[in-house]
Amino acid sequence: MSTWGRKVKVGTLYGLVVLALVIVIGSLGLIFFDIIFNGIKSINATFLKGVIPILMNTLQLVFFSLLFSVPIALMAVLYLVEYAKSEGFVRIIRFASGILAGVPSIIYGLVGMGLFVRVMGFGLSLYAGSLTVALLILPMLIRMFEDAIKAVPSTYKSAALSLGASQLRALFTVVLPASRTSLLSAIMLALGRVVGETAALILTLGTANAVIKGIWDSGRTLSINMFVLAKESVSLSEAYASALVLLLAVFLINTLANLLTGGKEHA
């Protein structure tokens, strides 16, 4: 290939990359502008008085779903990466988690409604909703946690073992701290999945416009509130306002998480 032909090829690829970047950033910008422009008009004292309890419901759901899923995912990954001897078993788990990560959330909602709401008798409650969403994000967490831990150089663990640390101690004092930013990024992605979930929660948490005061209470999250307002044509502007509040809450949580980790990996 001539020098001129090579330059044309490189220039074309560069132009396509820039075009894709402009499309992505432009699309996101339009979405944010639409939400901010239509939502900010309905944010007032009356709206905030009604939406703050729903925001508290959302934060409770996030807390309990992560509480149920993160420890299980982390222990499962540590076993798969460090202790599992059968490569075939590990491949089966990875394949299964990949399949489950792609299952539509409504399927998890049906399973949660049948298992937690009816069979176990939890009813439409925060407990049933949290367990259902925990099952939903568990496969995703397992895959991302595994990638995060595998990204830590093996020399870190080898150095700890050579200094006399046990395998378990090396994992918890060296490997996990070294991968904490990647682990936290995975948790933030799972958090985004939780706060945006609607279908599974309608079947397990319910749509009651009430404040959740205990784990057995029913209520609605911001995403369910947006769905109800838009579906029943109660107030599309308030649905936009709820979306704006949700975006701000996620932004603040991500900013706080970034500040807590210093914004970088630590060995």
From TrEMBL:
GO cellular component term, pick one: plasma membrane
GO molecular function: phosphate transmembrane transporter activity
Location relative to the cell: Cell membrane
Keyword Transmembrane in record: yes
Domain of life: Bacteria
Keywords: Cell membrane, Membrane, Transmembrane, Transmembrane helix, Transport
Family: Belongs to the binding-protein-dependent transport system permease family. CysTW subfamily.
PANTHER family, per the entry: PHOSPHATE TRANSPORT SYSTEM PERMEASE PROTEIN PSTA-RELATED
This protein's name: Phosphate transport system permease protein PstA
Gene from which this protein is expressed: pstA
